[in-house]
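Renewal narrative, Specific Aim 1. Our central claim is that a sequence can be written position by position from structural information alone. The example that follows is taken directly from our test logs and has not been curated for this report. It begins with the structure tokens describing the chain, in the order in which they were read.
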């Protein structure tokens, strides 16, 4: 089975890349939805619960890395839109411990690498 459309190919691209760099701008945790990740790695500050994470681009399937500087939570129950996707498993960040969040397009949910 080959990749025949631009969307299928784009789904293989990592967030960021050589043109954007690995680390993006710092993001503050916000009640509900955070700013869209534009790069592979972002620092997230703050202590508010996140329920939705925007897809970096249409057709994205993959992982982003977060370095928490505050203790924030990821909570289930967010209502999905075409861009903002909910958390599939609740988590609590650990300051300084990289949190990998993987988006599964089949379930349309983000899954954390750890829960606490």
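The sequence written for that structure reads:
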């Amino acid at each position: 089975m080959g990749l025949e459309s631009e969307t299928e190919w784009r789904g293989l691209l990592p967030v960021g890349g050589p043109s954007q760099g690995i680390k993006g701008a710092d993001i503050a945790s916000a009640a509900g939805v955070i700013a869209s990740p534009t790069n592979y790695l972002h620092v997230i500050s703050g202590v508010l619960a996140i329920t939705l994470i925007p897809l970096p681009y249409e057709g994205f399937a993959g992982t982003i890395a977060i370095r928490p500087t505050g203790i924030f939570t990821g909570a289930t129950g967010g209502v999905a839109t075409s861009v903002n996707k909910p958390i599939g498993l609740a988590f609590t960040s650990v300051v300084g411990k990289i949190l990998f969040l993987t988006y599964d397009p089949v379930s349309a949910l983000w899954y954390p690498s750890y829960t606490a």
